[in-house]
């Protein structure tokens, strides 16, 4: 029987899957107010009753059009911008907004704009986020926060100088299973998470995203995988709060001439890193642009008491395993310790936590409405957003160092800290 899991793209046979498990975890009675905790609200603002509105400017009509600003009860889309006219029109249409500017640089002069969503190309994020903050605007930026250590320093300095809110829109942070992982971690269900794995696999970009409609190379041409690390690092840093302190990384390339001359001087399609955390834990991250795999952004957390696995592109749904001491036999008759595993029925966090008009789901496992609402809620309540400047740099900078390691044949390198 082919069934569609609640989360993820993969399909699997329930009968095959349940062959070993025999168990399906019932959805636990889950407390609400976990994702947007009331106790974290400085002013304790009741969002349902607050009439305060954040006036957003949205820049970048590609992925920047995939959010839900117009549906958040406490947000007004004041203006939009893209260099490209068609994309400007697209943004105006999606967000039902009749004010547009030809560039971010013009939009940030608008005194009615409180905050800007920066969804331009990755190499420009710091230039654009810094310009917004210098113009007095709060910022939510697309990932990655930056692509060099110098940019990380500039971004942190601008945020510190202005004191404005900066958030990075990391979609993996709001995968439903990642939300559950944070909850299980806070409740101590994992025991010690002694090892984590994360992968971001995205093949075929060279065919659709490396050139624009005029045939010119885009910023994605030859982008080193580890300069786009946040869809993986978020699975550990965004769950346990650990910091990645050291890294060894190896890259793979095939010498394809279509990489020749790329701006990053990058020879690698794929990179795999082993990080060490500030708790001494290993964390394996693999980011692949070319090869035989199913596209995915997923994490798996190994704990001393319990482990959790996001759905895999190879057909398994979300799974929980419990450490156990049940002895079984393998096919050759040898004794083998077995741990029980269960399908994890992923809760519908969106219905439990988001304002009713934002229950529409979205790409990236439905992460966009959460990112939208978190930024607005943080501003209304004058609190830090979940993925603030320090978190954003803790997700992004380790990848920059990992890429340096891969260019040096896998030498172990220290990751600088951008915490306070
Ligand atoms: N899962 C995720 O979190 C996810 C998914 C897709 C893309 N992204 C990120 O979102 C960002 C946008 O992605 P995309 O695929 O739409 O990229 P893109 O290159 O297609 O679009 C960027 C847009 O920004 C516009 N732009 C650039 N400079 C501008 C300026 N000064 N003023 C106004 N507009 C300007 C460009 O005209 C372009 O339309 C990227 O940084 C990417 O890394 C994140």
Give a nutshell description of this structure:
The chain has 420 residues and is α/β, with parallel strands linked by helices. Helices cover 27% and strands 23% of the residues.
Describe the structure.
With 420 residues, this protein is of the alpha/beta class. Residues 1-31 and 39-43 have low confidence and may be disordered. It is built from 11 helices and 17 strands. Helix 4 (125-134) runs parallel beside helix 5 and helix 5 packs antiparallel against helix 11. It is 27% helix and 23% strand. Strands 16-15-14-13-9-12-11-10-17 form a 9-stranded mixed β-sheet. It has a 6-stranded parallel β-sheet with strand order 5-4-3-6-7-8, sandwiched between helices. It is globular. It folds into 2 domains: 52-164, NAD(P)-binding Rossmann-like Domain (Rossmann fold, 3-Layer(aba) Sandwich); 173-353 and 389-414, 2-Layer Sandwich (Dihydrodipicolinate Reductase, domain 2), CATH 3.30.360. The chain has helices at residues 14-21, 85-94, 104-107, 125-134, 149-162, 176-186, 205-208, 230-240, 349-353, 363-380, 389-407; strands spanning 2-3, 12-13, 54-59, 75-81, 100-101, 115-118, 138-141, 166-168, 193-201, 244-252, 270-277, 282-288, 296-303, 306-309, 319-329, 335-343, 413-414. A hairpin with a 2-residue loop joins strand 13 and strand 14 (306-309). Nicotinamide-adenine-dinucleotide binds at residues 59-63, 81-84, 87, 103-105, 119-122, 124, 142-143, 169, 171, 218, 364.
What's the helix and strand layout?
Blueprint: E1 2-3, E2 12-13, H1 14-21, E3 54-59, E4 75-81, H2 85-94, E5 100-101, H3 104-107, E6 115-118, H4 125-134, E7 138-141, H5 149-162, E8 166-168, H6 176-186, E9 193-201, H7 205-208, H8 230-240, E10 244-252, E11 270-277, E12 282-288, E13 296-303, E14 306-309, E15 319-329, E16 335-343, H9 349-353, H10 363-380, H11 389-407, E17 413-414
Parallel strand pairs: 3-4, 3-6, 4-5, 6-7, 7-8, 9-12
Antiparallel strand pairs: 1-2, 9-13, 10-11, 10-17, 11-12, 13-14, 14-15, 15-16
Helix pairs in contact: 4-5, 5-11, 6-8, 8-11
Nicotinamide-adenine-dinucleotide is lined by residues 59-63, 81-84, 87, 103-105, 119-122, 124, 142-143, 169, 171, 218, 364.
């Amino acid at each position: 029987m082919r069934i569609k899991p609640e989360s993820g793209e993969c399909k699997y046979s329930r009968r095959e899957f349940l062959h070993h498990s025999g168990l399906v975890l019932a959805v636990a009675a889950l407390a609400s107010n976990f994702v947007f905790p009331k106790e974290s609200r400085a002013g304790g603002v009741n969002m349902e009753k607050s009439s305060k509105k954040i006036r957003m400017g949205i820049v970048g009509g590609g992925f920047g059009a995939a959010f839900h600003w117009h549906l958040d009860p406490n947000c007004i889309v004041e203006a939009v911008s893209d260099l490209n006219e068609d994309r400007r029109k697209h943004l105006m249409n999606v967000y039902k907004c009749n004010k547009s500017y030809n560039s971010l640089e013009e939009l940030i002069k608008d005194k009615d704009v409180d905050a800007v969503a920066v969804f331009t190309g990755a190499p420009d994020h710091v230039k654009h986020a810094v310009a917004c903050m210098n113009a007095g605007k709060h910022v939510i930026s697309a990932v990655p926060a930056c692509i060099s250590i110098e940019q990380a320093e500039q971004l942190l300095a601008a945020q510190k100088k202005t004191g404005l809110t900066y958030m990075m829109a990391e979609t993996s942070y709001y995968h439903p299973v990642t939300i559950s992982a944070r909850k299980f971690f806070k409740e101590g269900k994992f025991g010690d998470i002694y090892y984590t794995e994360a992968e971001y696999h995205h093949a075929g970009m060279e065919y659709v995203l490396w050139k624009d409609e005029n045939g010119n190379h885009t910023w994605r041409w030859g982008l080193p995988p580890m300069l786009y690390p946040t869809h993986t690092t978020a699975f550990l840093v965004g769950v346990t709060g650990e910091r990645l302190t050291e890294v060894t990384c190896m890259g793979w390339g095939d010498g394809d001439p279509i990489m020749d001359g790329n701006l990053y001087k990058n020879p690698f399609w794929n990179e795999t890193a082993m990080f060490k955390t500030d708790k001494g834990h290993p964390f394996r991250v693999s980011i692949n642009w070319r090869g035989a795999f199913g596209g995915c952004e997923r994490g798996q957390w190994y704990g001393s008491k319990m482990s959790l696995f996001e759905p895999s592109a190879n057909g398994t749904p979300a799974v929980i395993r419990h450490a156990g001491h049940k002895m079984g036999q393998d096919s050759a008759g040898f004794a083998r310790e077995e741990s029980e595993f269960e399908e994890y029925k992923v809760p519908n966090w969106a219905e439990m936590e988001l304002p009713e008009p934002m229950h529409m789901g979205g790409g990236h496992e439905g992460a966009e409405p959460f990112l939208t609402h978190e930024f607005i809620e943080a501003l209304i309540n004058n609190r830090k957003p979940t993925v603030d400047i320090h978190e954003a740099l803790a997700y992004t900078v380790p990848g920059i160092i990992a890429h340096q390691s891969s260019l040096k044949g896998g030498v172990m390198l220290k990751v600088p800290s951008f915490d306070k």
